[in-house]
Amino acid sequence: MPASPNQIVVSVRAIEKSFGPTRALAGADLVVEAGEIVALMGANGAGKSTLVKILSGSISADAGTILLNGKIVSFASPGEAQAAGIATVHQATDQAGAAGLTVAENLTLNELCGTGSFFVSPRSTRKRAKEIAALIDLDLPLDRDFIDLRPAERQLIAIARAVAAKASVLILDEPTSSLSATEADRLFAVLRRLKESGIAILYISHRTGDLAAIADRAVVLRGGKVVASFARPIDFSAAIAAMIGRTLDASAHAGTLSTAPILASIRKARIIPGARPFDLDLRSGEVVAITGTLGSGKSRLLRALFGLETLVEGSFTLDGKPWLSNGPARSIENGVFMVAEDRWASSLLPPEIPGASIAGTIALPHLPRWFPLGILRETRERLVASEAIGRLGIKAQSPDDTLDQLSGGNQQKVVLARWQAAPCRLLLLDEPFQGVDVGARADLIAAIRNSQSGSATLIATSDTEEALEVADRILVMRDHSLYEADGSQEGGLAAVIGSVESAETRADGTGPTS
Amino acid sequence: MTDHAASSSKPASTFAETARKYALFVLLALMLVGFWYAQPAFINSANLFSILQAVSVVAILGVGVSITMSAGGFDLSVGSVAASSVMAASYAMVVLQMNAFETLGLVLLMGAFIGLVNGLLIVRVGVPDLLATLSTMFLLAGLQLIPTGGRSITAGMMLPNGTTATGAYDPAFLILGRGRLFDTVPYPVIVMAVVALLAWFLMERTRWGRVFYAIGGNETAAHLAGAPTKAYRLWAYVISGTLASLGGLIVASRVGRGDVSAGNSLLLDAVAAALIGFAVLDKRRPHVLGTVLGAIFVGVLLNGLTMLNAPYYTQDFVKGVVLVGALALTFGLGKKKR
Fold it and tell me: What CATH number should be reported for the domain holding residue B298?
């Protein structure tokens, strides 16, 4: 698609969309020029995903117009949007291709499914796949099954396919949420090349670091409208202030070393054979964050403490007594709670199920202790839920709301409230801020830090900024072993990021694939 | 942040929503009035109780199916368990000369045991629910024929080894299927009501029911919340197997002999009742009240049509139409987009 610089490729005017009484978009305007990367920022519920869905043809707008290359368009289906040249790469990378097909087949999927010829030979598929891969310098074994690919590789396949389909607009929804720093850099290099070739890119992300690296412009959505727009160099603190409607002081709590008694400790732990053994002490009232890349072993350590996995070597103690759990039931009885990553997969129930309400979600692990005779008393559940709604600032109409009615941040608050509803010794949080907007994150951090009497909290997060915001002490997981973050006291963010980056460069060569 | 979510009040339930919620109740009422109008004899209590008696076995089996469904499983073996129970009860009395109570105990234990086998196949061996219960269904369909060499069991029958059976049906046993309380309410209807009430209480009002549904909704979440998910799934099949054998006992005591073709359509009818139940109160999930109402709904329709001289061979067609309609109501028509 030939496009001179500064030519407007896609222009959205006064788009409105309501879901029942909720106005997701209230007259949003957006312009993306050829060869421009526009960052779309906004808290959860600001209307980002609704706008993306309208542009990609999944839903249609109630009012407003979309201009694509100067012509008014409206899409009845994702297929139509794709045919018109709008390609979308979604956050969930397992939908980026078809499992069971090879890389080559996935690269040529558009042609296999529609426009290609009726007869397909493996040779012609490979040939065409090579051409497509060359468009973005993709270097993957063409015979590999899609299911064996890492998220980053899946994403690149989706992008390559979009480029091959001659897309003039590329929409990326949280593309780096599951990528390591080096993988993200690789993605950025591809995006820069696409930008050179004149493709308009709309980039949705929570991560200011990513946006600083590649965005030409940032557009902030709040309450379904564009409230601010920032040109390069982007002032992210102003952008975040615009996003949440107030300023956020990223105060680090790190600094004061706790002298409280040791509550839990890990001795000579080896997560995988051959890893360096490590020790860790958690003091009462302490919030400790473990940061590090995906696959470095953070989740494994948490899962081992919760009794879902076993260590290769090493031992735990809790309150001075040896601690070895054989599963969640035993852990929960002993006050060891875990919030696993990916809340929909690990914690929440579909809305038609009884007990999928806020009250039921909070009560689920506590049912045997709250109702020893077995008979439910909903007033008790509701009382706990109402208290949590007030304390954590959960935006909901009543304790009976189902979780799918809440935004990501509020869902996560409910999951946290579940584990704060009973006396806790050790709280394990795995990526607790996944898909949570900045405002809700601040509420979650306050809730985590305020409940710290007599229990310890261990948080695994791959986002160093989050770690700094929440923790008293930060450790870095590297090659399945724990290290103190170098100079976390003076250097702050830069120092911690530095020690994670140095870990990444090493881990990427030899580290496990997921 | 999300200003709109907080400020908007809960939408008043629309007419369409209310209509969907009570659609099956309204249809049932319309049917009763319609059949009454067309055939006044339809509405007398004897006929209404005979409808309930006819659906009681299907409803009891359906409750078992809906419990396994709510725990994320599916028990395809209920029809075969019921049929085997008919044969086992007959064999126990006619050949082994047991009395009514011994027979009841033996057959219920057998049902629980088959449920246990189903459950162990699923949670221990790891066979998917549908496949495990499908195989036990086949296994039982064949097994029930072996002791009698494929023949029905009646008093004084010839056994495969050449001797003649000396026992007979215990008259006390026949009361279960043929007797009536105060000469009006058939015992099977009472059994159905008690089973439905207990199961409803278990599933809707106790924490155990809550966990059954949680496992069906998201097994990982239930496990991480500390629920012994395997034990629950095992219990779901034990309950289902026991209820299926109870259904079989009712059939046996009504028929009074071990008929090899008894329980042929029970599985499909029970599954249909459970699925029609999804639409009751717009729950979109298996639930006990819905299952019982689903069974009654089909029973009323078939009884009314029979009274209006609809030929017997249209029955399956009618059931199919009701099921398609109920499922469309549950999953499709006017469902609000989330």
Answer: 1.10.3470.10
Angle at the Cα of B153 from the Cα atoms of B148 and B159, rounded to 5 degrees: 40
Domain assignment present for B289: yes
Which residue is it, tokens 């439905």? Answer: B196
Tell me the chain A residues in contact with residue B336 when contact means C-beta distances shorter than 8 Å.
20
At B56, list the tokens. Answer: 């009681």
If DSSP codes are grouped into helix, strand and coil, which group holds residue B97?
coil
Number of domains in chain B: 1
- Domain region containing A59: 8-244
pLDDT tens per residue across span B180-207: 888 889 999 999 999 999 999 999 999 9
Q: Omega of the bond prior to A233 within 30 degrees of 0, cis?
A: yes
Chain B residues whose beta carbon lies within 8 Å of the beta carbon of residue A45: 1-2, 4-5
User: Is residue A96 left, alpha or beta, with left meaning phi > 0 and alpha meaning psi from -120 to 50?
Assistant: alpha
Mean pLDDT in consecutive groups of 10 residues from the start of chain A, 514 residues: 63 83 79 88 76 86 86 84 83 74 82 69 81 78 82 81 82 75 80 86 79 85 83 77 58 59 90 88 90 80 92 89 91 93 88 91 94 92 93 89 87 93 92 82 89 84 78 83 62 49 40 34
Contacts of A418 in chain B (CB under 8 A): 225
ipTM: 0.84
Nearest to B304 by CA among B26, B22, B33, B24: B33
Residue of A nearest to B229 (CA): A329
Between strands A278-283 and A262-270, the pairing is: antiparallel
Determine the Cα–Cα distance for residues A260 and A453; give it in Å rounded to an integer.
11
Within-domain flag for B185:
yes
Q: C-alpha angle A402/A403/A408, rounded to 5°?
A: 155
Residues A54, A66: Cα–Cα separation, whole Å? 9
B268-291 burial, b for 16+ CB within 10 Å, e for fewer? ebbbbbbbbbbbbbbbbbbbbbbb
Number of domains in chain A: 3
The backbone torsions φ and ψ at residue A30, rounded to the nearest 5 degrees and listed phi first, read: -155, 140
Same structural domain, A439 and A408:
no
Does residue B304 form part of some domain?
Answer: yes
Residue B265 lies in a domain: yes
Q: Look at A355 and B213 and tell me if their CB atoms are within 8 Å.
A: yes
Look-up of token digits 């599963």: A327
Check CB contact under 8 Å for A328 and B216.
Answer: no
Residue A425 phi, psi (nearest 5): -100, -55
Residue type, B80: S
CA dihedral B37, B42, B44, B50 (to 10 degrees): -160
